[in-house]
Amino acid sequence: MEQLVQGVCLVCSKATKQKCSKCGEPFCSTKCQKALWPTHKWLCDKPKYIFTLAPLSQLELKQAKAVVSSMEDKMIEAMKNVDIAESDGWREGNYENLINDLADPACELSEPSRSAMIHEMHQLIRVGWLAKVVPDDSEKPISPWNDLCVTWGLFKHPVPEEGQASADAATGWESLGPSHFTLYNAFHRRMLVFWTLKHLQRQGKALPPTVELHQLNQLSEVRTMAACQAAANRKLAAQVVLNSAMMGFIDDITGGRNPDAATKLGLNPDGSLKKEDDDGAKEKNGAGANDSTA
């Protein structure tokens, strides 16, 4: 590591004059730098003005193909829910080729569309895993990148309160499309630090002695507010606050096929997507069993 005038360690927020010799990001010690390396190695030589997602791993590649090849009703509905659109580059019958591209570090797709498609694929993988469409492989199909994408998805489309028409309407949220990779660049990077360290903790590996995740959580809250306000979106700043309850909820989803977490995501406790049968839908709408109108 090299020296700089003064900075704040990306991992533990300790004041430091040391930095990564390649990208110049501040790290107070080799331990902190090593702790973040699993995800930092992708961002290290990338432009700092935009956040980009790492390619799909080989496990994620297999899971993504399992999701799109199933093409079951529940996965088609899930694809609609995560806003996968033709304008993002998805073409019917071309999913497998595109997924191969998203797993290729040398992918020639331009940013931010490339990262937007990877983001959508991560959400599909999580829904497919919860719905048991993708194989478990005795290994949870979760990575810091996947956690990050699910976290952003939950902040972007929070669960509505009772009696509330939609959470989007309440927060004044407007779809940013791929532009959120630049507008909320700092937010994504800070969230990725949290999830990278959280994964080390789950694996039973020692965190740097200066790191405590609950403190990192609090630091994230402050920095997220600043990042959102800098992006001139105070309504979203009020919504996208990293608090212990939200992080715990996302951790529940990450830890396994948690029934409560599944319910929050609109799934049945066993992980399958909720789907009313025709008779149930008619009864709910007050239509008789013999009605012929849809």
TrEMBL record:
Chain positions covered by the region annotation Disordered: 259-294
Any one GO molecular function term: zinc ion binding
Pfam families to which the protein is assigned, alphabetical: zf-MYND (PF01753)
Signal peptide feature range: none
Domain of life assignment: Eukaryota
Entry keywords, A to Z: Metal-binding, Zinc, Zinc-finger
InterPro entries according to UniProt: Znf_MYND (IPR002893)
UniProt feature, compositional bias: Basic and acidic residues: 272-285
Domain MYND-type: 9-44
Protein name (Swiss-Prot/TrEMBL): MYND-type domain-containing protein
